[in-house]
């Protein structure tokens, strides 16, 4: 049964949403958090395990230094304080895909605290407070076989793969996000987008939401407008795409508003998001929530990063996305709106790489944002998935700059490269694309066109210069667009004594 919903605008007129986002990010370290097992995605089940990550008796964990470096970098990039001393904690619970029956996490002593990340929605900046960033390990994965849905209900049996168990996981928890009004779904999406860009720029994770290396839990509650008190929140788990983040927030606002409007109360619970319908359904309620019996992990030493190490890591941070956007905007001379279009189209990297390959910024942006965006839209793929490289785009523009192609011919070269006919130069050679710049050849074609269009030629001769356009068109047609139109026009007027 699907839940009753209140139309979005009506819900926002009556209630103010409060959001919170908890994001899990798998770090891309070569080995796991507390053992030396490899972390390759997609390896055959249970081939990347050892006594430590299987939790066998007598095994002892050792923290992965590269993972600690990774989380400190994330903390610094999120403007957090890196604490001088903290500990790991055991979170005790039973779950089939967690071999130890506890997860090593951090509880009341997170490594990074009190930061922020600025995000922009419709030209307005929202500062998202970061409560904490802590280190933990991932669980394994269960596979339910035989059912229609892939869920445990209706399955014939279940399989467990422990390859993922023990992969370093960073959890980033926001402070409550207030004051977003009807922009709440967009702000949540913008936050997830910016966080993904930031972590990707740091090079510590591939942050692929579709592969689960970044996943968001979304908290939503509603307060009646004008009320100082927040409502009861729900937590929608494991939202696995940016679009789903936006949809999950929107759906929870519409659903909770309907519950409150009918006189009901919102139940504090975890909920599941369904990609196919864009809706959430009830998971486990807080009454069933477990007492995790956290206690300091006795098998690991505390983490006490020296200030020198933290400053070294701070100095090693690459240019972060916000700073990069500001730089690029200035270098390319873009308006705020143009920059936003480039970012939204996913074209920033592509244009920058094209510029690095020697192309001027203006044509680089023009090709990616017009010709190639149109073709990507036609094929229903991301711009970055088109089978053309920034280097190839730069080469096509170089051929234009040196006068051997015009824009029209260049479009044919794009078509050829995208069709898999090879590099721009190969396409040019194979398709015989080249501006006809040989004066004698062009002159002969012009003579032929004048002979074939005697009436029009006569008009031009008698002073109606505007009629020359038709003759230029005929020359371009005869050369399949490969003539220099301006030169053709000069020749026509010259030959007809009208220049
Ligand atoms: Zn292991």
What would you say about this model in short?
Helix content is 39%, strand content 19%.
Helix and strand pattern = HEHEEEEEEEEHEEHEEEHHHHHHHHHHHH
Structural class of the secondary structure composition?
Answer: alpha+beta
Cofactors and ligands: zinc ion
* Number of helices, where a helix is a run of at least 4 consecutive DSSP H or I residues: 16
Major beta sheet, strand line-up: 2-5-6-9-1-10-11-12-13
**Overall pLDDT level:** 92
Main sheet? 9 strands, mixed
Shape: elongated
Strand count = 14
- Taking the alpha carbons of the first and last residues, their distance comes to 79 Å
Low-confidence stretches: none
Helix content: 25-40%
Return Rg in Å: 30 Å
Strand content: 15-25%
Number of domains: 3
If you had to describe this structure to a student in words, what would you say it looks like?
By secondary structure, this protein is an alpha+beta fold. The chain has 3 domains: about 10-315, no CATH class; about 320-430, no CATH class; about 440-495, Arc Repressor Mutant, subunit A (Orthogonal Bundle). The protein has helices spanning about 10-15, 65-75, 185-200, 240-260, 305-315, 320-330, 335-345, 350-355, 360-380, 390-400, 405-420, 425-430, 440-450, 455-460, 470-480, 485-495; strands at about 15-25, 80, 90, 100-105, 110-120, 125-135, 140-145, 155-160, 170-175, 215-225, 235-240, 270-275, 280-285, 295. The protein has a 9-stranded mixed β-sheet with strand order 2-5-6-9-1-10-11-12-13. Helix 13 packs across helix 16 (about 485-495) and helix 15 packs across helix 16. The radius of gyration is 30 Å and the shape is elongated. Bound molecules: zinc ion. Zinc ion binds next to loops. Zinc ion binds near residues 35, 37 and 52.
């Amino acid at each position: 049964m699907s839940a009753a919903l209140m139309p979005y605008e009506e819900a926002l007129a009556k209630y103010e949403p409060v959001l919170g986002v908890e994001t899990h990010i798998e770090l891309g370290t070569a080995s796991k958090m507390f053992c030396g097992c490899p972390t390759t995605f997609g390896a055959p089940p249970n081939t990347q395990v050892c006594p430590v990550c299987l939790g066998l008796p007598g095994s002892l964990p050792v923290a992965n230094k590269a993972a600690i470096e990774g989380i400190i970098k994330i903390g610094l990039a999120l403007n957090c304080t890196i604490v001088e001393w903290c500990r790991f904690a055991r979170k005790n619970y039973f779950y089939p895909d967690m071999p130890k029956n506890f997860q090593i996490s951090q509880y009341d002593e997170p490594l990074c605290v009190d930061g922020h990340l600025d995000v922009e929605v419709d030209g307005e900046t929202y500062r998202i407070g970061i409560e904490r960033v802590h280190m933990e390990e991932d669980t394994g994965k269960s596979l339910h076989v035989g059912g229609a849905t892939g869920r445990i209900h209706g399955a014939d049996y279940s399989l467990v793969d422990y390859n993922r168990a023990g992969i370093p996981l960073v959890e980033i928890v926001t402070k409550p996000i207030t004051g977003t009004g009807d922009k709440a779904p967009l702000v949540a999406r913008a936050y997830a987008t910016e966080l993904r860009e930031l972590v990707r720029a740091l090079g510590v994770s591939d942050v692929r939401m579709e592969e689960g290396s970044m996943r968001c839990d979304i908290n939503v509650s509603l307060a009646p407008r004008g009320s100082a008190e927040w409502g009861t929140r729900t937590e929608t788990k494991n939202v696995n795409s940016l679009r789903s983040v936006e949809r999950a927030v929107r759906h929870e606002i519409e659903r909770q508003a309907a519950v409150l409007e009918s006189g009901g109360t919102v139940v504090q619970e975890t909920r599941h998001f369904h990609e196919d319908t864009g809706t959430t359904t009830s998971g486990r309620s807080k009454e069933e929530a477990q007492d995790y019996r956290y206690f300091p992990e006795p098998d690991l030493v505390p983490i006490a990063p020296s200030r020198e190490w933290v400053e070294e890591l701070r100095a090693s941070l690459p240019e972060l996305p916000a700073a990069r956007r500001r730089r690029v905007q200035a270098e390319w001379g873009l308006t705020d709106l143009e920059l936003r279009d480039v970012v939204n189209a996913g074209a920033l990297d592509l244009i920058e790489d094209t510029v690095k390959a020697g192309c001027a910024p203006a044509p680089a942006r023009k090709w990616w944002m017009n010709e190639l965006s149109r073709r990507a839209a036609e094929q229903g793929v991301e711009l970055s998935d088109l089978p053309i490289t920034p280097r190839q785009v730069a080469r096509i523009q170089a051929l234009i700059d040196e006068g051997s192609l015009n824009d029209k011919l260049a479009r044919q070269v794009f078509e050829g490269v995208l069709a898999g006919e090879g590099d721009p130069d190969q396409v040019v050679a194979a398709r015989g694309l080249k501006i006809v710049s040989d004066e004698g050849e062009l002159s002969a074609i012009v003579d032929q066109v004048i002979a074939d269009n005697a009436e029009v030629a006569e008009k031009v001769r008698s002073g109606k210069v505007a009629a020359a356009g038709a003759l230029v068109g005929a020359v371009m047609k005869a050369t399949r667009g490969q003539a220099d139109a301006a030169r053709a026009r000069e020749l026509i007027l010259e030959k007809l004594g009208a220049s």
